[in-house]
Amino acid sequence: MSKFNRLQKIILGVIIIFLTLGIILRVVSGSTTGNFIYDGISMLKYSMIDYPLQTIRGFTTDFANLWQVHEENDQLRYELSKNPSYKAKYENEKAKNEELSKALKISDEDERFSHTWANVIDRDVTTWNNTITIDVGEKDGIQKDQAVVSVEGLIGKVVEVSKYTSKVKLLTSEDKLNTVSIKVLDEDGNANMGILESYDVGKGRYVITLFDEGAEIKKGMTVMTSGNGGVYPSGLLIGEVESVQALISQTGQTIYAKPIKNFQSFEYVSVVVPKGDAS
């Protein structure tokens, strides 16, 4: 059996070579020929040992830098993935600010009504078209049957009042008793009286009975409260005429009216009282 295995022989050979090189360098370092030999050996050492080590160190550094860039890219992708939610939040806040600006403008410029502005604090998805809850109540002077508007126009009336909150029944409620006395203004500014009977959920339109069957009502004409009936004050915008049809075997006309825009989405509403009636 051999006294040394193959690996041990290789290691021993390398050690002997370096010892020999060291002795030669020591002996010849003082002569010109020695310098030449020294330079050759140094170059050999650099190419066999130093350069490979430098290459390994450089590779390690490059790999570390690459890994850092990879982590930064992962973070960037994460931030970008959240961007749609940031955009949605921004658009929502922008819409709320625009609505609030309109509310403040109405309060400053409306000479007909006193406004008590409120936040919508509850609108259940199961009763979305029926009711909302607002954060004003008896302490704010709110009373049952007072009209409630958004920044666009009439949306309903107060039906329940507690100390700090109130419930509002919307005009889009499926309650058949939720009627409103209205008027349609024609092209000459004449008022044609009628009743808002109900809300057609399928069509998304108010169903209105107009008393005068001879009135020339056209698409786009304004529908607003008439003030008759004692609940809603006169002059609150409801919507605009969408279509007209004659009643069979009855007097009058049936009108489908498009509600005010943004009826499905509002953050701020106002309980209104005519200024002559405000306490």
UniProtKB/TrEMBL annotation:
PANTHER family to which the protein is assigned, alphabetical? CELL SHAPE-DETERMINING PROTEIN MREC (PTHR34138:SF1)
Give Gene Ontology CC terms.
plasma membrane
Record flagged with keyword Protein biosynthesis: no
Role, per record: Involved in formation and maintenance of cell shape.
* Keywords of the record: Cell shape
Instruction: Write down the Pfam families for this protein, in alphabetical order.
Output: MreC
Under Gene3D superfamilies, the record lists:
Rod shape-determining protein MreC, domain 1, Rod shape-determining protein MreC, domain 2
Question: Which family is this protein grouped under?
Answer: Belongs to the MreC family.
User: What does the record list as GO biological process?
Assistant: regulation of cell shape
Gene of this entry: mreC
Which N-terminal residues, if any, form the signal peptide?
none
Designated name of the protein: Cell shape-determining protein MreC
> Start and end of every Rod shape-determining protein MreC beta-barrel core domain?
120-272
Q: Which InterPro entries match?
A: Cell/Rod_1, Cell/Rod_MreC_2, MreC, MreC_beta-barrel_core
